[in-house]
Amino acid sequence: MRNDLTCAVVRDLLPNYVEGLTSEETGQAVERHLRSCPDCAAKQAAMVGPELASRLEEERRELDYLKQVKRRSRFRLVAAVVCTVLVIAGGFAAKIFLIGTPIQPQTYALRHYVDEENVLHLMIDCVNSGMAYYGWETDEENGLVEIFGRTVTVSPFHDEGWGRLTVPLEGVREVRLCGDVVYQDGVVVTSAAMHRYEARTPYAGDAPALGRVAEAVGLDDQTWGYTTELTTSARPYRWTINFQSHWGDTSADVFMRYYYGPQILALVDNLDEVGWTYTTATSSGKTFCEGVLTLEEADAHLITILAQSDCGEQWKALKSVKDFAATPAGMQVLYDLVREDLSLQVAPVF
Q: CB-based contacts of 271: which residues, under 8 Å, 6+ apart?
């Protein structure tokens, strides 16, 4: 190919040629000119040295800068992670040691009574030795007193797993401790009565709810061993408890008729009858027995024991066991009545 590039043109192209920016054809023309022109070749050699060195130095500076940026980014990332971990750990520590959670009724054992000056005394003890109570607050409005507290993990900040509180009852209708009623309408309400009250169910056909009722009144399936039958196709609705374990000298009739049966009828709104079957020992061996307690029978016996009780005229005015289950205080009164009645029927075991 004819070399038609002049020195002036080649020197104009040299910067692009050195950078490798010319086309292949132009680059070949510049190279042919450089082979035949010592002056332009010298110019190209002089240009390559400083230009290349300058470019390499610039690239090195850029690389160093990028490394610095990368190191700073890594440091910032690590610092951010560490700070996040510290914040989370600090928040968790503050939560379990300083802030805690509201006290729940199942976490404490309660003893309470009303003294001669009409003051309610509450002695609250945590059932978990690793937990502490603090921050007791009492709010009173319109005859309702509500007491709250918080529970945290034991630490030097909080190390008391108990509370000792008093509530003057003048003008007070109800006292609640951490959500549970402990005093109502002149009656000190125990956790046993509150547990029964909370197990109430409106329907005799709800088998899981009936299981909770049985557990609440003390008929634990694992202890007693029984199966159940429900008759709910037509009134009267009946719940039959078939005891599997053998009864000894004491008849199941007494316990079911005077203790468990009345409570069960009270706690299941539309239940009309409670039935039971069991075996007992006789001189001739084991004998199969069965019994039934109707709501009418339970209510009639209740009126009899109410007449002999000093529980108060407001409770004597109630005519059915179901009326007592309407409030925690009423459930407490019924619970006390059936326990006392049972003690008159058999040797005291409660």
A: 204, 237, 238, 239, 264, 265, 295
Tokens at residue 277, please?
A: 């079957």
Q: What is the pLDDT of residue 65?
A: 67
Mean pLDDT of 242-266: 85
Peptide bond into 236 cis (omega under 30): yes
Per the model's pLDDT, the better-predicted residue between 126 and 74 turns out to be 126
Give the model's confidence band at 348: pLDDT under 50 very low, under 70 low, under 90 confident, else very high: very low
**Cα separation, 152 vs 1, whole angstroms:** 94
The confidence score (pLDDT) of residue 350 equals: 42
Task: For 16-42, give the DSSP string.
Answer: HHHHT-S-HHHHHHHHHHHHH-HHHHH
- Cα separation, 154 vs 303, in Å, equals 51
Strand order in the sheet with 226-231: 226-231, 238-243, 273-282, 285-294
* Cα gap 148→205, rounded to integer Å: 37
- Is pLDDT of 210 > 80? yes
Which of 330 and 348 is assigned the larger pLDDT?
A: 330
For the record, the structure tokens of 103 come out as 């006290």
Residue 185 tokens read as 């309408």
Q: In the block, which residue shows the tokens 């539309």?
A: 270
Residue the block writes with tokens 């058999």? 346
Helix ranges (H only) for the chain are 7-19, 24-36, 38-94, 191-198, 207-217, 221-224, 252-255, 261-267, 295-307, 313-316, 321-324, 328-345
Q: DSSP code of 310? A: -
Contact 159, 84 (CB under 8 A): no
Q: Calculate the CA 223 to chain-centre distance.
A: 28
Contact residues for 287 (Cβ-Cβ < 8 A; gap 6+): 279, 280, 281
Segment 65-80 mean pLDDT: 74
